[in-house]
Amino acid sequence: MADIGPLHHPEAELLLDYAAGKASQAASVLVATHLALCPECRRQVREYEAIGGALIESTPPVALSQDALSSVMAQLDEAWEEAPTPVPAVDAETMQTVPEPLRGYLSAGIEGLPWKTRGLGVREAVLDLGDHSVRSSLIRIAPGKRILSHTHGEVERTMVLKGAYTDSTGRYGRGDVAVGTPDLDHTPVAEMGEECLCLIVVEGGLQFTGRFSRLLNPLMPR
Fold first, then answer.
1. 119-160 pLDDT tens trace
2. Residue 126's closest CA among 144, 134, 114?
3. Residues of 42-78 as b/e, b for ≥16 C-beta within 10 angstroms?
4. What is the DSSP letter of 146?
5. Which end of the chain lies in a sparser environment, N or C, as judged by fewer CB atoms within 10 Å?
6. SS3 breakdown of the chain: % helix, strand, coil, rounded to 5?
């Protein structure tokens, strides 16, 4: 059977912001990584970009100052002179599991990240995606294990890179993006048979809701 691609996608508003260049850096990395695996959203973004291009073409031209061209050319010269930093080759698992552009942020590969235990069978590695207003990280959930029940301060976006998990909203496999809002209280559980690896971008932090796990809330980073 032909691969139909991911079944769960980022919100249309986020795709539109991405196409217009208005999405945050971390959200843009998540969307672009999803696009690498999702033909449907690639088509949608191309349509948004075409609409934006048509609007620009219909906009009357604005007169520029006399030094505008020289200023732009000077900036281009500076960018050209900066030699790109070589990106070390990553391991085979990272190459197979993590699409670009996210892979470009994992110079040491998946195993080289600073993993920390976040529960029984759950580990997290915080990422620097160039946007410190949100928390971006990779989460590894061992088969059959779960993330503690929680809600969200604002929005949590989760993209599955490997394996799959289920919660009260459904099943999420490779390439799928789950959007958690403040009214969602859920407990993601990894499917048996394979570790689940996810990219998570959280705005507004998390709040644990379990009887005992809520005691951890004061320790959670914001």
1. 899 999 999 999 988 999 999 999 999 998 999 889 999 999
2. 114
3. eebbeebeeeeeeeeeeeeeeeeeeeeeeeeeeeeee
4. B
5. N
6. 30, 25, 45
pLDDT at residue 73 is higher than 90: no
Domain coordinates in residue numbering, the chain: 1-222
Longest dimension (CA), the chain: 66
Measured CA distances, 181 to 73, 77, 126, 158 (Å): 44, 44, 21, 12
What's the half-sphere exposure (Cβ side, CA atoms, 13 Å) at 11? 11
Question: Is the CA virtual torsion 7, 198, 202, 147 positive or negative?
Answer: positive
Q: Where are the alpha helices (DSSP H) in 82-179?
A: 92-97
Per-residue confidence (pLDDT) for residue 38, from 0 to 100: 97
171 DSSP β-pair partners: 166
Average of per-residue pLDDT values in the chain: 85
Task: Of 17, 5, 48, 4, give the one whose Cα is nearest residue 177.
Answer: 5
114 in Cβ contact with 125 (< 8 Å): yes
Given CATH 3.40.50.720, say whether it is the number of domain 1-222: no
